[in-house]
Amino acid sequence: MNASELQKLTDWLIDGGRSRASPKSFMAETCERMVAAGLPLWRVGVFVRTLHPDIYGRSFIWRPGAEVEVGTVEYKILESPDFHSSPLIIVFQQGSEVRARIDDPASKRFPIIEDLRAEGVTDYVALPLPFVDSTVNASSWTTKQPGGFTNEQLAALRAIVRPLARVVEIISLNRMAASLLDTYVGNRAGERIMGGQIRRGHTETMNAAIWLSDLRGFTALSDRLPAEAVVDILNRYFDCQVAAIKKHGGDVLKYMGDGLLAVFPIDEYVGDEQQVCGHVLEAAHESRASVADLQYPIGDAVERFRFGVALHVGRILYGNIGGGNRLDFTCIGPAVNLAARLEKIASQTRRTIVASEGFAGICRGGWSDLGEFPVAGFAKAARVYGLADETSAA
Prior knowledge:
This protein is of the alpha+beta class. It has 12 helices and 16 strands. 40% of the residues lie in helices and 29% in strands.
């Protein structure tokens, strides 16, 4: 064991491991420095729980000579027998160390030990990574050294884990903040907020395709069904759109009851107007098919659903708007207002997908001219287009 190298590693961790910006490179350098200091590591894992609607936690696995593997686990792992028989659950729940020597009969209570034995592992230890807020995450350390870890090596691991936990916590908090912003305000808005665009009035103009949709008959649906069923229906209904919107480059900005506002920025990084509007129309086709396939059993009946979406393109003002210190990162402007009016026209004409003259003119082909319609708040009537494969009676 090289005490000098271990101290250098400890100092580097206390300093925040700042020479490595990404979690993967930080994990790799930490483990490589430990090996260089004389710790005979084979497989190292760091397991961190997170705040995310779909993901329970993330894992980082290091092996000598291999790239760090980053994985995610969903909440269903909480129902997995393997998880409940893992040493890690003891660490998570009790915050205590777990050691399992491969040649110790008592270690057989952990199924993972047999898998490690097949790799030639001789010793396994799981150590808690306590965070400042008292939550506990976990790390695991294995070796192929004959006889397992020595007492000196275990002491070194326990000493390293304390400053390691601080850096892991900082990385975890940064990612958690970004993840929560992505979840609640969208990816592009989240990036801007994390980048410091947090003051009221911080806005920018951008050219974008605009998507505004709502569920047909939602008020009547809410009146006759239990609130829990309505929430479940809304979640499934939004799933029909969000996957397609994100797949084709859009960013969901807001849910408004049964309404959804999304934007597809147009710039040199994602494509010109024709390319972006083409992606938007593809997303609309996919969403229409998904909503048409959506069924929800209520007693002996099965609910079917219809929705409408208005597509427009134009300049929008994008940024922080609100009162006092309660802000919303959203978009406003005449283009957004027109999209909202077009969505009402889609309902009036019983169309699923309608587009403004500007959008239909950019994304040519497959449109029917539905005529001009007066638009509340606008001096001029708007010419509206519907898909040629739909009819007003659809």
